[in-house]
């Protein structure tokens, strides 16, 4: 259990959508989005976030890209 949680405090900043609509053949945009999520979530994780909720996503593909970015940021050995 995280130390802040044991002390009665927890941190759960939300991760929100980037608002990007991906063209079917734009792999570069998907890669950049995953890197943006990985960077954002990595900072939150290193700062001690206890929970990383995803909210305000209306595009399933963007949500899945965010989850992959989170997995890479919090568990580098997670398969991509």
Features:
two-stranded parallel ribbon, disordered N terminus, mainly alpha
Summarize, please.
The chain has helices at 3-6, 27-46, 60-74, and strands at residues 15-16, 54-55. The protein is mainly alpha-helical and 80 residues long.
Written account of the structure:
This protein is mainly alpha-helical. The chain is built from three helices and two strands; from the N terminus they run αβαβα.
Describe the main β-sheet briefly: 2 strands, parallel
Shape: globular
Which band does the percent of strand residues land in?
Answer: 5-15%
Unreliably modeled segments:
1-6
The H/E string reads HEHEH
Helicity, in percent? 40-55%
Strand order, largest beta sheet: 1-2
Distance between the termini: 27 Å
- Helix/strand-derived category reads mainly alpha
The mean pLDDT is 83
- Determine the number of helices (DSSP H or I, runs of at least 4 residues): 3
Cα-atom radius of gyration: 14 Å
Task: Tell me the number of strands.
Answer: 2
